[in-house]
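Minutes, project huddle
Topic: does the predicted pose make sense with magnesium ion bound?
PN asked that the exact inputs be recorded in the minutes so nobody has to dig through chat later. Recorded below.
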Amino acid sequence: MSTLRYRVDTRLAKLLSENNRSSEAALKELVDNAWDADAETVRISLPKPMTNQPIIIDDDGTGMTAEELQREYLLIASDRTQRRGQFTAGKHRKAKGRKGIGKFAGLMAAHTMRLETWARGRKAAFGLSAADYDAAPDIERLAIQWVGRVSEA
Ligand SMILES: Nc1ncnc2c1ncn2[C@@H]1O[C@H](COP(=O)(O)OP(=O)(O)O)[C@@H](O)[C@H]1O
Ligand SMILES: [Mg+2]
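Predicted holo structure (tokens), as shared on screen:
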């Protein structure tokens, strides 16, 4: 008989993010990520009531390369402290990220999310909808589409 394997239902993200149910808590996760990325400025745009305008969180931190996005951002429950130490590389801030689950905050606060990031002159971006997410049978088999991966920033 072949070996047995655990699988991870996509519902895990929701269970892990139960504390981020409110939009405020979700925003805090994203601002914490900006802090950890040594950002000086975070701009937050909130939608006007009763409109479909997006929530936009825009930070001027280090950003991620496409490779970092794949290797670090998408790795669920990865321990930032183990990976990069307790303090940020550039500004020696005490890092806030610990559990490696802040990444789900966007989808807790909205039906679709788009992440755009720039590092070393290159942009990487992806989009994801809560519907795609819910439809995936297993979190590891959720296909996340790159958008504009190779364009210059
Ligand atoms: N705004 C950002 N700028 C640069 N890197 C980011 C940003 N947001 C997330 N990341 C990267 O993705 C990783 C995962 O983020 P997250 O899921 O919030 O977990 P944690 O913050 O606990 O590590 C971070 O450790 C960081 O390496
Ligand atoms: Mg975080």
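Observations noted during the meeting:
- Residues 11-111 form one domain.
- The radius of gyration is 16 Å.
No decisions taken; revisit at the next huddle.
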